[in-house]
Specification:
- Helix content is 23%, strand content 24%.
- The protein contains 6 helices and 14 strands.
- The chain has helices at 45-59, 130-135, 137-147, 172-181, 202-212, 235-241, and strands spanning 5-6, 16-21, 66-67, 77-79, 93-96, 102-107, 111-117, 122-128, 156-159, 169-171, 189-191, 197-200, 217-220, 249-255.
- It is globular.
């Protein structure tokens, strides 16, 4: 079946396919209803694999060539040139220049980003929650892309569905951590209606980190995972509802 795909002109190019998948078009049920790509979720594993097979078909690659790391909210990125099978590496970003491979990351509020240097034939995918973005996963991905032959001024980056500032309330300790690292980070916080709480702008923080790292081709799709329940999974929404688990969205890019 045909899946609803969110794409960006920044990433379109000969020999490259990509998609920010929604939760629509899958076989999972219950809180995972739809296209859950989370191997780390407590969903029926067969349903997850069926969902991922549909995604790999949409990307035009074989399921065993669709690579998803074991995410650990780290700054770590790995260059890959072959499938890693059952032993998924513990990292939060992947880079390749090997034709035939698709790279993906999952998310459910955290930033999910796709990277491409079309001229060099180098692609990447990164998972950037606040911790990964704060500790350098974006910069690590750019560095690994350069090691694989990319040129930083030529790298195009797109941020997919991510929790928006209006939906992301944090406490004082969270804000203090960012301000201690750089007082200018106060720009990413607005007061909330609750005392000593703030609304954090993760997409803007990601965009500023990328700009500071030398990226000139960047797009934020400005899609709020928390607010659009019919299209996206959201960890924070599941917590607010007391649900036992949540589905994961997938962003993926492939070198055909």
């Amino acid at each position: 079946m045909s899946l609803p795909l969110i794409t960006s002109d920044l990433l379109r190019g000969e020999g490259i396919t990509h998609a920010f998948f929604t939760r629509e078009g899958g076989v999972s049920q219950g809180v995972y209803a739809g296209l859950n790509g989370g191997r780390g979720s407590r969903d029926n594993p067969e349903h997850v694999e069926q969902n991922l097979a549909r995604m790999s078909g949409a990307l035009g690659v074989q399921p065993d060539l669709f690579l998803l790391p074991y995410l650990v909210h780290s700054p770590d990125c790995l260059i890959v040139d072959a499938p890693f099978g059952e032993n998924r590496p513990r990292c939060d970003a992947l880079v390749t220049k090997t034709r035939g491979l698709a790279l993906g990351v999952t998310g459910a509020d955290c930033g999910i980003l796709l990277f491409a240097d079309h001229a060099a034939g180098v692609i990447g995918a990164a998972h950037a929650g606040w911790k990964g973005a704060f500790t350098g996963v974006l910069e690590s991905t750019l560095q690994k892309m350069e090691e694989a032959g990319a040129s930083r001024p030529s790298i195009h980056v797109v941020l997919g569905p991510t929790i928006a500032q209006a939906s992301y309330e944090v406490g004082l300790e969270f804000r203090t951590r960012f301000l201690e690292a750089d007082p200018h980070n106060a720009w990413f916080f607005l007061p909330s209606s609750q005392d000593a709480h703030f609304m954090f702008d993760l997409p803007a923080y990601i965009g500023v980190r990328l700009k500071a790292a030398g990226i000139v081709h960047f797009e934020n799709l400005a899609l709020d995972t928390y607010a659009e329940e019919a299209r996206f999974f959201s960890y924070r929404r599941s917590v607010h509802r007391g649900e036992e688990d949540y589905g994961r969205l997938v962003a993926a890019i492939a070198l055909r």
